[in-house]
Design a protein that fits this description.
The chain has eleven helices and 18 strands. It has 395 residues and is α+β, with helices and mostly antiparallel strands. The strands form three sheets. Strands 7, 8, 9, 10, 11, 12, 13, 16, 17 and 18 form a ten-stranded mixed beta sheet that branches.
């Protein structure tokens, strides 16, 4: 029986094991497999192209599962990374137990998925793999400052589907529209549930500004936004979320695109990243007067490194068709409050606003709110072409 801490969790392993994913052990995973009739395991790893790769296993026995979880497997690195030579290309992929989740699409063959880390022939972390670059960047930050970076992505995408005649949406006016004017709200909701079951921590989802009518198809823009968590986990959840959204679209026979621009004059899709520095569980971006020196230094760093960060966050020519005026896209290397044309935005953070819930619910005397942890700064230029691990390592 799950405790109060995890009985509302959508993560099936956390609920069953009654513990957070960061505490998962090999024996926890074996226990879950045995008690939930899991038939297969997929080792997932992010390639040089930023996409999830898959190695499938049928579980033959308890000892076989133990070996998979303990030793991982060999893979051909030259087929995964363009810059590894075929003459010496074998790599190891080793599971990270905290990333384990049940595949939401494998109903007939219950399957467990686990993300992996690359190791070289000497048993050392592979320096050139994106998840290891992020691992080293986070450790370097903590060693030099005592802070850890927390981050979350805003994942925008278009659903491309046959045109429907009923309840036409207004072009460039789709922001937070409701069904039936938002035709694919149910797909977004289904994807959000699947992402949560896979360990993703979602803030919310909604339809976005963009709605484009073609001759035969209509294109509807949506967004799923996450909660800020440790930057390594934040990158994992974006990678998994993109896979889930695409798979959900495939289920319904529609195309999902994270392309930064699909038609000039219409809203493009970004991958904005919110960040904050955390120490001992506290948000270090605020002090008694507002934004702290740590926040201002972070903003200054993002602005001064804008060209380099753009190389990681905007990797294809279409990226730069999105960065134009009047489309809620950044066009100026500067920062500001709430202004969506700036590169770095400081969004509302519930500071100095009092208890608004008490104002609207005077009958509830127990309403209270902790505003401190909400404040982030938003880096607005990246888009779906980014390798999320390298982008967050850069930040």
């Amino acid at each position: 029986m799950a405790s109060d801490s995890y009985k509302m969790s959508a993560n099936k392993l956390s609920k069953f094991l009654d513990k957070p994913c960061h505490d998962f052990t090999k024996q926890d995973i074996i226990k879950y497999v045995e008690h939930n009739d899991i038939k297969a395991v997929n080792l997932r790893h992010v390639g040089g192209d930023g996409k999830l790769k898959t190695l499938n296993f049928v579980i033959e026995s308890r000892s076989h599962l133990d070996t998979i979880l303990s030793a991982g497997e060999r893979v051909d690195g030259s087929s995964i990374f363009n810059y590894i030579d075929t003459s010496s290309s074998d790599l190891y992929i080793i599971p990270r137990y905290k990333t384990a989740f049940v595949n939401p699409f494998s109903k007939d063959i219950p399957t467990l998925e686990i993300l992996c880390t690359y190791f070289n022939k000497k048993g050392e972390r592979l320096d050139i793999s994106s998840e290891n670059i992020l691992f080293k960047a986070q450790n370097s930050l903590e060693k030099s400052t005592g802070f850890r970076l927390h981050a979350m992505g805003e994942l925008e995408y278009y659903v491309i589907a046959p045109k429907q005649s009923l309840y036409r949406a207004t072009v460039q006016r789709g922001y937070q529209e409701s069904s039936p004017f938002c035709k694919w709200e149910f797909l977004r909701a289904e994807a959000m549930q699947a992402i949560s079951e896979c360990g993703g921590q979602i803030k919310y989802g909604h339809s976005e500004v963009g709605h484009i009518y073609g001759e035969e198809n209509e294109m509807e823009q949506n967004e799923i936004e996450f909660l800020p968590i440790d930057v390594e986990d934040a990158a994992d959840q974006v990678a998994i979320a993109k896979w889930i959204i695409r798979r959900t679209g495939y289920k319904y026979g529609v195309n999902i695109t994270f392309a930064p621009k699909i038609m000039v004059g219409h809203a493009g899709s970004g991958l904005h990243v919110h960040t904050k520095l955390v120490k001992n569980g506290r948000n270090m971006f605020l002090n008694n007067k507002g934004l702290s020196d740590n926040a201002l230094k972070t903003i200054a760093g993002y602005l001064s490194c804008a060209p380099s960060l753009t190389a990681f966050g905007n990797t294809i020519p279409l990226s730069f068709l999105r960065l134009v005026p009047h489309q809620e896209a950044p066009t100026n290397i500067c920062w500001g409050d709430r202004n969506r044309s700036v590169l770095v935005r400081v969004p509302l953070g519930w500071q100095d606003v009092g208890n608004m819930a008490k104002e609207t619910n005077p009958q509830d005397t127990g309403v209270s709110v902790n505003n401190r942890e909400s404040q982030t700064v938003e880096f607005r230029s990246p888009d779906g072409s980014a390798n999320i691990y390298l982008l967050m390592a850069g930040l």
